[in-house]
Protein: Glucose dehydrogenase [FAD, quinone]-like
Amino acid sequence: MIQLTGFFKSNYSTINDLQFYFDGFETECSSTEFYSIQLTGFFKSNYSTINDLQFYFDGFETECSNTGYRSECKDNQKLLNATADHDDFIAKLTSIRTSRNTAFIDDLIKKYASIVGNAITGPLPCGRRRVGVRPNNMLPLSKGRLVLRSANPDDHPKLITNYLDNEHDAKVLLQGVRIAQRIMLSESLKKYDVQLVFMTSPSCAGYTKDSDDYWLCIIRQFTLAENHPTGTCKMGPASDPEAVVDDQLLVHGVENVRVADASVFPTQLNCNPISVVIMTAEKCAQMVLDKNKV
Ligand SMILES: Cc1cc2nc3c(=O)[nH]c(=O)nc-3n(C[C@H](O)[C@H](O)[C@H](O)COP(=O)(O)OP(=O)(O)OC[C@H]3O[C@@H](n4cnc5c(N)ncnc54)[C@H](O)[C@@H]3O)c2cc1C
Structure:
């Protein structure tokens, strides 16, 4: 998922602002659906016969409201100077995703809130609000692995993500970027006076701005994972060396142990997964009931 940003000359308050007002919801336990009014849309890249790109359009975010909302843009120069912290920020942002320590996250947000926008998009124009457009490659070809760290069952497993390992995945995201640009500059959005804001990174400075190579570089710098991992416990026949459970969700070679969650999907879904997770759980419950019928 690569995050792009545009600015709208507009001043609507959304539930997104409310979320930040209710300080404390911005933790790992928060719900994204309360967190933002999030629109989504599906597209097909040239590399696929079915929809493989999902776009998330994040709600208006205040950048300089003078009302106490986050990211208030009082001092543009301060934001400019913050670019030096960019690499540190990205490293910390990545660790937010895995940390369970909310105090750490709170500190981090306080420390870095003022530079978030700048690190990703360059200095933020005052008097405007931001909308994020995030193309998400739903059918990546890169494959990760989940392996045991040790023989100790209390040790967390090792997650080897291998994001963008296959060049195809970056190319799909590049198409996503181009589609997002077309949407944001489309006739219908003209009345909002949208300005595209280019993401920058010192590592991509050598590329011509807005060229394909520039975006492929940016994609490698800024792509984050969407929250839809699946397939670490694949369903398949016993003859498949990668399969963990059979079509009854029973673990191969182990009696009476079933797995019913997103891990059993043999391939990545090209949609939000929760309905399929719930369906899997209900199907599993029915199979257990059927097996134990007297
Ligand atoms: C921030 C976020 C936003 C999302 N938004 C959407 C969305 O809008 N739409 C959508 O369709 N999907 C969304 N998803 C994805 C969706 O929530 C997941 O795909 C889905 O919850 C996966 O279900 P699961 O049962 O596989 O795993 P989980 O829901 O993660 O359930 C795993 C459970 O196992 C428990 N557990 C872990 N370890 C142990 C242990 N050792 N012993 C006992 N219990 C344990 C955990 O506490 C947890 O309750 C979102 C995910 C995230 C993180």
